[in-house]
Design a protein that fits this description.
Rossmann fold; 37% helix; 2 domains; globular; alpha/beta
Length: 502
């Protein structure tokens, strides 16, 4: 069970002005960079019609933790000309995996430079072109992208072992200690501070709220949680998924079927929002109640529910009844467009590919993986070398199977790991902490309805309800692979940052 779960965490990671004088050491004289050696460059980019002048710092910082020393590679973007840092937020960002580098959030989403894609999020060339990102949040906040140990160029220091930095608690310690050290060195204690994580990065983000507060009295102003994973019990990766899992996945099945126009006119002609509202009500009500009854469900009622599920998902009612109303996402991805000999993506249900062998859970059969992985991997290498000016002979690890394969949770919780209480405690203790939950309708890796259910079980004081916000996007696990979604996010981000700290 745990191996299958770790495999899926690996998949979740797949989710996830340039000219200037370089001040780092000459790469010709020093081909391998040592820790504490940074490349610092000045740039400009156009964001929201404004030309921003900013400085990037890329390098490996030595971090001494209770588990040993490590060298964490980071890429920081700071706006030039800021006189009062207390009014300039800083956001620390990372992806998930848990063994993924920060390439996805950096090259696809938040930074002032990103990969050129079409309106559907597909790269327009190979190698990918890189351009100014008009939807960046660089005008709203400084940005620090972190590669956890074992990813990117981040490594254990000499004499330390990778195992000392793998696992939920070890990871929090190294990433949290880096954030504390960066804050100290770059005089950001007085700045509003945020953390942004995607996929497993949302798990890390929530853990960091607790770790930074308890260890360093560093309270955060806000966390951005993109494609959330806070409760492993509702993932459909166990050998026997819970009935709740099937109910929480159903709205995403319906969204994917709607996108591919596989529904009858009654539902196909509805807006996606209206359809999702109806399917949510059915999934959390009549459908979940039917699943709860198990083999005690009357045959007539079973056939009735199967017909409703089929109507919402584009599947055949007899096929739904044959699996006792419980359709695994692997079967759904391969069944929806079976007549066209196509499979839809799990990371992003908009993507399609040939119906072949392979495992949807580890990504080998997922067309949304194939469409993006190599493009982003090449782009981050190009960007670090040519634009940030950081040079090394080390390979940049975009996804570490060694990290994923060794991951552990506290007390061997495994699939029983959840963070509802951690989130509630953090929000109840810190009245300034604002939490923004973002999810894609077409994401079968971390379904949006699962995130809603999780936060419905975060019992916060009524006066803190205003600090919790949800946004839904017509995209997949990587919500930014859709230009209209980027525009939607950018508008919402401006409001969120400007109102945070109230």
């Amino acid at each position: 069970m745990m191996k299958r779960f770790l495999a899926i965490l690996a998949v979740l990671a797949l989710l996830l002005g340039c000219a200037g004088a370089e001040t780092a050491a000459d790469p010709a004289a020093e081909p391998e960079k040592a820790a504490e050696d940074f490349a610092v460059k000045q740039h400009s980019a156009v964001v929201q019609g404004q030309t921003l002048n900013y400085t990037t710092t890329a390098g490996r910082m030595t971090v001494e933790t209770a588990g040993g020393a490590c060298e964490i590679f980071f890429m920081a973007y700071t706006l030039d000309g800021v006189e009062d840092l207390s009014k300039r937020p800083v956001t620390f960002a990372f992806n998930g995996g848990p063994g993924s580098s920060s390439e996805w959030l950096q090259m696809g989403f938040l930074s002032p430079r990103h990969i050129v894609t079409d309106e559907h999020g597909q790269p327009t060339s190979l190698p990918a072109a890189i351009e100014d990102n008009e939807y960046s949040i660089m005008d709203l906040t400084d940005l620090v992208f972190i590669d956890p140990v074992g990813t990117g160029y981040s490594t254990p220091a000499e004499g330390a072992e990778l195992d000392e930095f793998i696992g939920y608690e070890n990871d929090l310690r190294s990433v949290g200690d880096f954030i504390r050290l960066y804050t100290n060195r770059y005089n950001r204690w007085g700045s509003p501070k945020y953390v942004a994580g995607e996929s497993y990065g949302t798990t890390r983000a929530v853990g960091l709220v607790e770790y930074l507060s308890d260890t360093y009295s560093m309270d955060l102003n806000g966390i951005l949680l993109i494609s959330c994973l806070h409760n492993c019990t509702i993932l459909m990766e166990a050998d026997q998924p819970s009935d709740l899992s099937y109910a929480l996945y159903l709205p995403t099945y319906a969204a994917d079927a709607w996108y591919h126009k596989k529904l009858d006119d009654q539902y196909q002609q509805m807006s996606l929002e209206d359809l999702m509202k109806e399917v949510r009500a059915f999934a959390g009500g009549e459908y979940l109640s039917a699943l709860f009854k198990g083999r005690n469900l009357e045959e007539e009622k079973k056939n009735e529910i199967a017909a409703r599920v089929a109507a919402y998902t584009g599947l055949k009612a007899e096929d739904v009844a044959a699996v006792n109303l419980r359709v695994p996402y692997r079967d759904f991805c391969k069944s929806l467009l079976k007549d066209e000999k196509l499979v839809i993506g799990r990371i992003d249900g908009r993507y399609t590919g040939p119906l072949t062998g392979g495992d949807m859970a580890n990504g080998s059969a997922d067309p949304s993986n194939a469409a993006m992985g190599g493009v982003f991997g090449a782009a981050i290498n190009q960007y670090i070398n040519e634009e940030l000016g950081y040079h090394t002979d080390r390979p940049y690890i975009t996804l570490s199977n060694e990290v994923n394969g060794s991951w552990t949770f506290p007390d061997n919780f495994g699939m029983g790991f959840s963070q509802e209480k951690t989130i509630a405690d953090a929000m109840n203790k810190n009245r300034f902490l604002k939490v923004w939950v973002l999810g894609g309708y077409y994401d079968l890796a971390t379904p949006f309805f699962s995130s809603e259910w999780t936060f419905d079980h975060v019992f916060i004081n009524s006066e803190h309800e205003k600090n919790l916000r949800f946004s839904h996007y017509e995209s997949g696990h990587m919500i930014y692979l859709n230009e209209p979604c980027m525009a939607q996010f950018r508008k919402e981000a401006e409001e969120w940052y400007l109102n945070s700290g109230d």
